[in-house]
Amino acid sequence: MTRPTDRVLTHTFKVGARYTCTLTVPFDTSRGVRNATAEWIPEWPAVLTEAEQADYRRERDALLAELADERGRSIVVEPSRTT
User: Fold this and answer.
1) Residue 72, Cα to own-chain centre: how many angstroms?
2) Count of CB atoms within 10 A of residue 23's CB?
3) For residue 34, what pLDDT is reported?
4) Terminal CA-to-CA distance of the chain, rounded, Å?
5) How far is the C-alpha of 33 from the C-alpha of 16, rounded, in Å?
6) Which of 13, 15, 19, 50 is placed for a possible disulfide with 59 were both Cys, Cβ 3.0 to 4.6 Å?
7) Considering the domain boundaries, does residue 39 fall inside one?
8) How far apart are CA 39 and CA 37, in angstroms?
9) Domain contains 76
10) Residue 79 lies in a domain
11) Is the CB of residue 8 less than 8 Å from the CB of residue 24?
12) Which domain covers residue 14, as residue numbers?
């Protein structure tokens, strides 16, 4: 079995009618996914409606499922913690 090389997955999608989000997920074959970044247009949302949260999670989960399928492994999402 040939191991895929390191790569970066990027996915841009609408979140409701107000926002566009670009998720960038770098994957290092030796360490896995370390950090994913999200860029929001026109600005980082202070609050998302329930429908917007569902849009974001659906698209995020689809991107991570693609990465998991490609790597043949599970991926766990841990929310950021603020102190």
Assistant:
1) 17
2) 19
3) 65
4) 43
5) 27
6) 13
7) yes
8) 7
9) no
10) no
11) yes
12) 7-71
**Token reading at 1:** 């079995």
Which sign, positive or negative, has the C-alpha torsion 78, 72, 67, 5? Answer: positive
Neighbours of 22 (CB within 10 A): 13
If DSSP codes are grouped into helix, strand and coil, which group holds residue 64?
helix
pLDDT (0 to 100) of residue 10: 87
Q: How many domains does the chain have?
A: 1
DSSP symbols for 27-46: EETTTEE---EEEEESS--S
Q: Using an 8 Å Cβ cutoff, are 67 and 74 in contact?
A: no
Between the CA of residue 63 and those of 8, 47, 66, what are the distances in Å? Answer: 11, 22, 5
